[in-house]
Design a protein that fits this description.
The complex is a heterodimer of chains A (264) and B (330).
Chain A lengths: L1 E10 L7 E11 L4 E6 L5 H9 L6 E6 L2 E2 L5 H4 L3 E4 L13 H8 L14 H14 L16 H13 L5 E5 L7 H18 L2 E5 L3 H6 L3 E6 L2 E7 H5 L3 H12 L6 H5 L1
Parallel strand pairs in A: 3-8, 3-9, 6-7, 7-8
Antiparallel strand pairs in A: 1-2, 1-4, 4-5, 9-10
Chain B lengths: L1 H39 L6 H17 L4 H25 L4 H23 L7 E3 L14 H22 L3 H11 L1 H6 L4 H27 L1 E3 L6 H16 L7 H24 L7 H23 L1 H24 L1
Antiparallel strand pairs in B: 1-2
Helix pairs in contact in B: 1-5, 1-8, 1-9, 1-10, 2-3, 2-4, 2-8, 3-4, 3-8, 5-10, 6-8, 9-10, 9-11, 11-12
Classes of the chains: A alpha/beta (264), B mainly alpha (330).
The complex binds adenosine-5'-triphosphate and magnesium ion.
The site of magnesium ion has 3 residues of chain A, from helix 1.
Chain lengths: 264, 330
């Protein structure tokens, strides 16, 4: 479903701020894979997701989505294949527009936007049913401006928007990091449900090792722009936080530095 | 003495229909500004030039014998092109929006002089008459009642068309672009193109108001657009402040408040002139009013927001507690 081959990205090349963010990333996702991604600060997790999303062109390598090489497609064209949820709840929705308008925008992802009316009566009924899945009472507030919603509600709505057109790949970049623990758990639950029901292929970056172990069928760890290990299937099911930390220091030769990951 | 006071007051009332008509024309212009400033979140300064381009094109074409309808359509198209230019500067060449607008404004200064010159067989002209005595114009200050009616109809059509457009799939994409670029790209919207289309639409409307203004005042003038952006912003801001309460969600009503803002602006304008203010100070006054209104939301956030309040409260509570403990210890 997704193939990254020797993907490289250097920011600010040739300046004193030069930063090799991706140093040859190789990854192959099968349809239906739900992979969690962990790694310390600056390991290149967000950069990997941004490379897939086409936020900027990569320096070398190939990105292939469902058999199509997308290296040359810019961000808005690649959006046809992708659903994205960001760390900042503000990023995924248009605050000044209504809940139903946001969903209408999302349900036209990858299609030509014409001069037909922006939202149909049939769609409104569909959206109401979809919002019920979230179990947040948003189905009764469809004409409310999204700016009035809480961070958790916005993230849940963004998730719905990201999955409404069944993306080939769902990209989640620490999408629960800005939420309080209870809300984060709720949003994770919704994430899992949407991925399962729509049979999506997903990549989820998280700093929470327990979540990384509990969710998905595969786990990868990144370090200094590389994937340093990749665990799937039965082996992943038996992972523990301690085991992961040990594995990290064995593979990278360093202590695992992120307190955030260990404490949570 | 009493007689002259009465006379002044009568003059004042006699000037009101004119103020309303001017307010309506500039209100149309302000609707154009609303599209960029409020919907696209871009401060587009090209309007200072495109309002004059609309006026110059309309006056020049009518002078050269084209019909009123054709002249106004071409004026509108000239505005679209001005917007296209700013849009390309901004998206294709990556120039910040404000600077892109200023560049277009400067380019249009030369273009406008040329267009008016063309009609007079000169290299350039700073002024071109378009009197309703010699031309079959749509509006004119010499025919106030008809002008007010025509303007009202014009506005009805513009508000109607915009209400429809911004409700369509593409119009929604344009609004999303102004609201959140990251989200819009993630949802597959070509945000660069959306900005260009929005800038074109805005400047087209502004040029149309320029064409109407030239007919109304009986000439096109190279200086007529000076500070137009400030008048447009003033109309948007005044409209929102005074009439925002009845236009919470409906888009057509929001556009109407902009229009009302324009009318209020020109009524205030005539009023201060009749109160004896030197007309020279009007631009200064407008700029100060706009500056203050623009500052209000910032000040609100900075000094009166919930967070700032909570912080102050917490600080006070902490001080109190510290004092209490002190006294208890003592
Ligand atoms: N747009 C950019 N311009 C310059 N440098 C960047 C950019 N994006 C990322 N970087 C740099 O690339 C490196 C990898 O960053 P990235 O955001 O991928 O880390 P991450 O693994 O997501 O870390 P975190 O857990 O802190 O989010 C960092 O050193 C970062 O500063
Ligand atoms: Mg990151």
């Amino acid at each position: 479903m997704l193939k990254l081959e020797n993907v490289r990205k250097t920011f600010n090349a040739g300046t004193i701020n030069e930063k090799k963010a991706l140093c040859g990333v190789n990854l192959h996702l099968n349809p239906g894979d739900f992979v969690t991604i962990i790694g310390g600060n600056g390991a290149g997790k967000s950069t990997t997701l941004n490379a897939v999303a086409g936020v900027w062109p990569i320096d070398a390598g190939d990105i292939v989505i469902d058999g199509e090489n997308v290296n040359k497609l810019c961000e808005y064209k690649r959006a046809k294949y992708l659903g994205r949820v960001f760390q900042d709840p503000m990023n995924g929705t248009a605050a000044t527009m209504e809940i139903q308008e946001n969903l209408a925008i999302a349900s036209r992802r990858g299609e030509r936007r014409t001069l037909k009316w922006g939202i149909s009566r049939r769609e409104k009924d569909e959206f109401r049913e979809l919002l019920k899945i979230l179990d947040l009472g948003l189905e009764d507030r469809m004409t409310a401006k999204v700016g009035l919603l809480s961070g958790g509600q916005r993230q849940a709505l963004t998730l719905l928007m990201a999955s409404i057109k069944k993306p080939k790949i769902l990209l989640l970049d620490e999408h629960t990091a800005a939420l309080d623990p209870k809300t984060a758990a709720k949003v994770l639950e919704i994430t899992e449900k949407l991925i399962r029901e729509n049979e999506l292929t997903a990549m989820m970056v998280t700093h929470n090792m327990k979540d990384a172990i509990a969710y998905g069928n595969r786990l990868i760890m990144m370090h200094e722009g590389r994937i340093i290990f990749d665990i799937a299937g039965e082996e992943k099911k038996h992972l523990t936080v301690e085991g992961l930390v040990k594995k990290f220091s064995q593979t990278s030769g360093e202590e695992f530095a992120s307190d955030r990951a260990l404490l949570s | 003495m009493g007689c002259s006071v009465m006379g002044t007051i009568m003059n004042y009332f006699a000037s009101l229909p004119g103020a309303v008509a001017q307010g309506m024309i500039w209100g149309i212009m302000a609707i154009g500004v609303y599209i960029t400033y409020k919907i696209l979140d871009i401060a587009d300064l090209s309007v200072d030039g495109s309002i004059c381009t609309g006026a110059a094109v309309c006056a020049a074409m009518m002078t050269m014998g084209y019909s009123l309808a054709v002249s106004m359509i071409v004026a509108f198209v000239s505005g679209l092109l001005a917007g296209l230019l700013t849009g390309l500067f901004h998206t294709f060449m990556g120039i910040p929006a404000i600077l892109a607008g200023i560049l277009t404004q400067l380019i249009l200064w030369s273009v406008n002089l040329k267009i008016m010159g063309l009609a007079l067989d000169k290299a350039s002209a700073a002024n071109l008459p378009l009197s309703s005595r010699n031309f079959d114009t749509l509006v004119s200050m010499l025919e106030m009642n008809r002008s007010l009616l025509v303007l009202a109809l014009f506005i009805l059509v513009i508000v109607g068309v915009l209400y429809w457009f911004f409700g369509t799939e593409y119009g929604s994409a344009l609004r999303a672009t102004g609201a959140n670029l990251t989200m819009s790209r993630a949802q597959g919207i070509n945000t660069g193109l959306a900005k260009i289309i929005g800038l074109m639409l805005s400047n087209g409307i502004v040029a149309l108001s320029g064409a109407l203004l030239a007919q109304y005042q009986g000439n096109a003038d190279i200086n007529m657009g000076k500070g137009a952006i400030v008048i447009g912003l003033a109309a948007v801001i005044i409209g929102e402040a005074l009439f925002g309460w009845f236009a919470k969600t409906n888009f057509a009503l929001k556009l109407t408040t902009v229009l009302l803002g324009g009318i209020v602006y020109f009524i205030v304008y005539s009023t201060v002139i009749y109160m004896g203010l030197e007309s020279n100070y009007l631009k200064l006054l407008s700029a100060v009013v706009v500056a203050i209104f623009l500052a209000i939301p910032y000040w609100k956030k900075q000094y009166f927001s919930g967070a700032a309040h909570a912080e102050k409260k917490a600080q006070k509570a902490a001080e109190k507690k510290a004092k209490k403990e002190e006294t208890e210890n003592a």
